[in-house]
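TEACHING EXERCISE
Course module: macromolecular assemblies
Task: Read the component lines below, then compare them to the predicted structure of the full complex.
Student: A.B.
Group: 4
Components provided:
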Amino acid sequence: MREQQLRLADDRTARVAGREMRVEAVSKKFGQAVAVDDVTLGISAGEFVSLLGPSGSGKSTLLMIIAGFEQPDSGELFLGGERLTDIPPHRRNFGHVFQKYALFPHMTAAENIAFPLKMRGIEKAKRGPMVANALERMRLSALGERLPHQLSGGQQQRVALARAIVFQPALLLMDEPLGALDKKLREEMQIEIKQIQRELGITVVFVTHDQDEALSLSDRVAVINQGGLSQFATPRELYDRPSSRFVADFVGDNNFFPGQLIATAGRKGQVKLDGGKVLAGQLPEGKSIALGAKVEIAVRPEAVSLNSKPDSRVSGTLIDVQFTGGTTTRIVRHASGAIYLSRALSAGSHAAQGDAVSLQWDETSAFIYPADGRA
Amino acid sequence: MTAASIVSSGRPLRLALGNRRALVALLLLAPALVLYVALYFVPLFDFLSLSVVDGGLSTAHFSTLLDMTYLSVLWRTLWMSALVGAICTALGFPVAYLMSRSSAIGAAAIGACVMVPLWTSVLLRTYAWTVVLQYRGVLNDLLLTLGLIDQPLRFMYSKGAVITVMVHVLLPYVVLPLYTNLASIPRELPTAARGLGATGLRIFIHVTLPLCLPGVIAGFTLVFVLSTGFFVVPSLVGGPASMMVATLIGREISENLNWAQGAAMSVVLLATATVCLAMLSRLRHMDKRQGSAA
Ligand SMILES: Nc1ncnc2c1ncn2[C@@H]1O[C@H](COP(=O)(O)OP(=O)(O)O)[C@@H](O)[C@H]1O
Ligand SMILES: [Mg+2]
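Instructor-supplied answer key:
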């Protein structure tokens, strides 16, 4: 029985989920405000992709365009080469999980899950086992006859997820689905979502403003800023090689040192800091910055170590030492008032609060970005 | 007073507190209650009690009702009221739906259009309708001019005329509860249904309609109950064949001066309406699932 179902799932996966989703040059305005700005994304079959960005950056609008609830002003959508742009949402065969779950309050959990099957004309006798299977997978078997308001937030969330996957959708779209849950439940659900995605081999587009969530769940993350795509990369790449000032700032912590680009040699650049010191760093790939342009050097706190003897490098006063479980973060205030972070696994430097310290790092972990560049 | 608070400790204090709350509630209610009892219940009871007095206590006024046209008029009142309720619901639904889908300004504008007729007296509006419906009236003029008829038609003094005018007068009473209900349905529910594969009609049948059933029943009930007691409209635009109970009661009292008989008719009308109301209210609460709809 179970094998049969799995085989069925496999067949379906091969047929519908084994297709690439392409978003090509999609733009959308609301009045004068640009919500989505020329976004191009290729999402592979079976891939877990997050749309990550600050609130109001256009993530939901992009997701609604993929779902078909919003029409793009320009651009096209393709699913496995088939043009999707004009296909209405109810014929796209996508599953959705909304932040507020959107369960039908007058239907039981089981009826909610059966709804998409009913809409697809699947007869009652076949719906029963499919619903039971979905309930079991989400550990909801005992709760099938409950109404949504008789379920906890986490249970409602699982019903919403079961409803979204029971019909083997070609794509599963989720808009901040865990936003309403508390931290512990959220982490449980993250594991559960990831597990289901792997088992079903389903393609997922997941909207979140929580970078930890995006980094831990995704195969690739699309960072969205002011409607535009800043970077589309694996979590590792995103963290290690942010392509812009924005991504370097938005994903993880970073120290920024403003200055002016004074020399370049291949991928290496020399920056004269506002204080007059000259530091070296890596120039971004595929983009050239004019000499003399305003730039910023970004260095991750993990790459920064503290030296108790002030020297020619950037220096300041150690104002606080924060122990946060696995790591220790040291906070340094520069004479200009700027705050810098240094993070180490062990206790690290022996400098004490109030000491004058200088910051040091390997120049391969310093990245040069044009100042204020959006992309 | 809830069971929990009685069981819990500090019982006397809580009871005292409960009593005080009840007292405050009673005091706040008192003015309205006094008005209601003095101006409504006492006269009503006074009037209705006439029905059982005929020299001594008697059921004579009720038994005569069985021989009279009363029962057929009562039956007509009920089905015509139900029909008016149904038509109002059918006509009011699209208006309420449009309102719930409009922007705040749009909804306010439609709402104002729905409400404005309520500011004109029913009498005036009914007279306006007689101008429209009479033999040499606006409607016949129009149909003659358009060449749709050769001879003026008799619209007045028919059931059709009574129902038309009552629908016009009572329409706002169904639009408002329906709008409130429809507006409380979260927007993401129809969206979710669409995403799950439902087309417009099926979204309506499976999601919107079940969720606004309480509003439909509330609107229908209001119109139905108001209709059963309608006096002005059936009296002015209706004839003998479309007479409703209120007109019959009025005639019994003002023409035959038979107050006791009129009171007996009123008692039966009140009882019948109450039974209908109870049935409708049961229908509304039957589906316990509606509990969380809003
Ligand atoms: N229906 C709408 N009408 C007008 N403006 C909208 C609408 N939906 C979104 N916006 C605007 O588009 C921008 C992007 O919104 P949204 O996609 O919801 O961002 P996010 O999901 O990243 O928080 C915001 O500035 C928002 O105000
Ligand atoms: Mg959003």
